[in-house]
Design goal:
Elements (H helix, E strand, L loop, with lengths): L11 H12 L3 E7 L3 E2 L3 E2 H16 L7 E5 L4 H13 L2 E4 L8 H15 L3 E4 L1 H8 L6 H4 L2 E4 L21 E6 L9 E5 H14 L8 E3 L6 H14 L3 E3 L2 H6 L1 H11 L3 E4 L1 H10 L15 E4 L6 H11 L9 E6 L6 E4 L8 E5 H4 L15 E5 L3 E2 L4 E5 L13 E6 L11 H8 L12 E10 L2 E7 L4 E3 L2 E3 L1 H9 L5 E13 L2 E10 L8 H16 L3 E7 L14 H9 L5 E6 L2 H25 L1
Parallel strand pairs: 1-11, 4-5, 4-6, 6-7, 10-11, 12-13, 13-14, 26-27
Antiparallel strand pairs: 1-2, 1-3, 8-9, 14-15, 15-18, 16-17, 19-20, 20-21, 21-22, 23-24, 25-26, 27-28
């Protein structure tokens, strides 16, 4: 389907109905059980019928305009449930499902979403409903909702479905933000946002009639739902789904499935490529063929040029090329991608003078310069007609071409704002440049700059570390630490600042790899202090080598640095070793740690 053609449907309901009529027997989706075994294929006709049946169940409760949670493992059922909500004019809310053994960690966020969205329905599986039943007494909001399980679906209900006659401006779903720097908020996406942006991605990402998609990105993350699931429906091309857990358990299975199904498009955050480097064995390489892979999307977290370089080096014997990588940048408030690298072109890297960058200046380093540099990966060019402005986040004026500023964007892909938060919507979605009057723009909260048409993202405003007037980006410091020793767990470190005696001080919390033995902690800490001093010209205030499980991440894998900072200050980290320039802080930290361990022991004794 060509975007903006006369036959273009206006809503996802019209789109799926058209697919069902024109290519009803074609496979739309297939789920790979345990990452390997194909389920029965879900055709467009099957999906349309299931969506109508689910919608009919909702319609008996006059649910149009209401909000419904989607609580599923990655599956075909969640695709049908999402479409069923759309077919009923119900606003879907994709959220991470509660997990057995982690209920206390996952349910508070789920409860806050239910209250914020005033959700009245929940669509789920019987297994997850059984989990919820065990805690309903503690969460009265759940007991006030109507619950539907996919196992109870009667396809005969489809015959009683009535077209809700939604238009393009109707809200399709709420995408709750990951909460890496703030309380989760519900981003409002209309049918128009999705249809318009899917057309953009079809062009910008180079989808063709014979494209094949594979996604393990979760449905409750915008990368998984929009490009992973919705764009294939827009294109009319097949999509294979894997569970995120299947990928984490065996990263090689992602690459094996790309080989097996001739996948052309598959996306992931930076950590996924790094995990493949560390977990895919040399003996697996000969069995892989990645030559069909045309667009390996790399977004959702800072892109590490070293990981890209190593990935190409490791997997080039399998047909993976530099041109395959597709670095990108996006956010839920923009539906998905703001920029991406065009298909068939090589990624672009820029080497900058580090000291200038710390002062918000973009100064390319001479080729002969090898010290005091930062290498950044471009996140590509603006998607189609997307407008980007680099603005001073305090003065609201356009930055000079060689300055770092906040990334502002404008396009119909910008969503409708935050659910029930008019003031935050006005502040974030209605920004104007004070010097020119241009706008409105969406303020992304991310820092970066444009150079020769390419967008470079340097970090989050709220994560920026400012010490003695100099800017430092936490991911650069974290990568420096993790390159020092194989026992330092990649993508599981957090750099942040704390205040001591009126001055900002740098703290690093870094996880140690599981099953690590005989680690010389003192030597590692000394190496970290020296390397940070040399590479970033900062004196560290404290270092914590933490046990696995201390670095918290969002559903999309972003490091929650503010949560880590809180846990550091309140002594809630379980440590391998720690050091501080302030002996009193070290003593206080040890006392808190001993209190926590004593309390844990008391609880365990009480259980016995």
């Amino acid at each position: 389907m060509t975007p903006n053609s006369p036959a273009q449907p206006n809503t996802l309901v019209e789109l799926l109905r058209q697919r069902s009529q024109q290519q009803g027997d074609s496979m739309a989706y297939n789920f790979l059980i345990d990452g390997k075994t194909e389920s029965l294929p879900l055709t467009y006709r099957d999906l349309d019928r299931q969506a109508r049946a689910i919608a009919a169940w909702l319609q008996q409760y006059q649910a149009k305009g209401e909000r419904a949670l989607l609580l599923y493992p990655q599956s075909l059922e969640v695709v049908a449930a999402f479409c069923g909500c759309l077919y009923a004019g119900v606003i879907a809310i994709p959220v991470p499902p509660p997990e057995s053994g982690r209920l206390k960690r996952t349910l508070p966020r789920l409860r806050s979403i239910v209250k914020d969205a005033q959700a009245t329905f929940a669509l789920t599986s019987e297994r997850i409903l059984e989990l919820i039943e065990t805690v309903k007494d503690e969460f009265p909001e759940f007991d006030q909702m109507r619950w539907f399980t996919s196992e109870s679906l009667d396809l005969a209900w489809a015959d009683s479905w009535q077209d809700p006659l939604v238009d393009k401006d109707q809200l399709a779903y709420l995408q709750y933000t990951s909460g890496s720097t703030s309380t989760p908020k519900g981003v409002m996406l209309s049918h128009f946002n999705l249809m318009h942006h899917a057309g953009y991605l079809q062009q910008a990402c180079g989808y063709e009639p014979d494209s094949v998609t594979l996604t393990w990105m979760p449905y409750f993350h915008d990368y998984g739902l929009v490009e992973g699931i919705t764009v294939p429906l827009y294109n009319g091309t097949p999509c294979y789904l894997m569970s995120p857990f299947a990928f984490i358990k065996r990263p090689v299975q992602w690459l094996r499935n790309i080989t097996r199904f001739g996948v052309t498009h598959s996306q992931a955050p930076n950590f996924a490529y790094d995990l493949c480097l560390r977990r895919v064995k040399p003996s697996d390489i000969p069995s892989l063929d990645l030559s069909a892979w045309q667009a390996a999307g790399n977004a959702a977290e800072p892109i590490n040029p070293k990981v890209m370089e190593k990935f190409v080096e490791n997997f080039s014997p399998c047909g993976f090329r530099w041109e395959t990588f597709a670095p990108a940048y996006g956010l839920a408030e923009y539906t998905l991608l703001v920029t991406t690298k065009p298909k068939g072109e090589k990624p672009v890297f820029l080497t900058l003078d580090a000291s200038a960058l710390e002062k918000n200046k973009v100064v390319p380093a001479p080729a002969r310069q090898t010290e005091g540099i930062r290498v950044l990966a471009s996140c590509g060019r603006p998607v189609c007609q997307t407008q980007i402005a680099i603005a001073d986040p305090e003065q609201f004026t356009r930055c000079a071409f060689d300055e770092v500023g906040e990334i502002w964007v404008a396009d119909p892909s910008v969503t409708q704002g935050y659910w029930q938060r008019p003031e935050e919507t006005e502040r974030t979605f209605r920004a104007y440049l004070q010097d020119t009057g241009e706008g409105p723009f969406l303020r992304t909260g991310d820092l970066g700059f444009l150079h020769e048409g390419e967008l470079y993202v340097t970090g989050r405003i709220k994560d920026l570390i400012i010490i003695r007037g100099t800017n430092h980006y936490p991911q650069d410091i974290e990568w420096t630490v993790q390159d020092l020793h194989p026992a330092l767990r990649a993508d599981y470190g957090a750099a942040f600042a704390i205040e001591d005696k009126g001055e900002e001080q740098l703290v690093i919390v870094q996880e140690i790899e599981r099953r690590t033995e005989n680690l010389d902690s003192e030597a590692i800490i000394a190496d970290i202090r020296q390397e940070i001093a040399e590479q970033h010209e900062i004196q560290l205030y404290a270092i914590v080598l933490a046990k696995p499980g201390n670095i918290l991440k969002t559903a999309s894998g972003k490091i929650q640095r503010r949560a880590c900072r809180h846990n550091f200050l309140t002594g809630q980290l379980t440590t391998w070793a720690e050091w501080s320039e302030n002996p009193q802080l070290t003593a206080k930290f040890k006392d808190l740690q001993e209190d926590i361990e004593s309390l844990a022991q008391q609880i365990e004794t009480a259980k016995i």
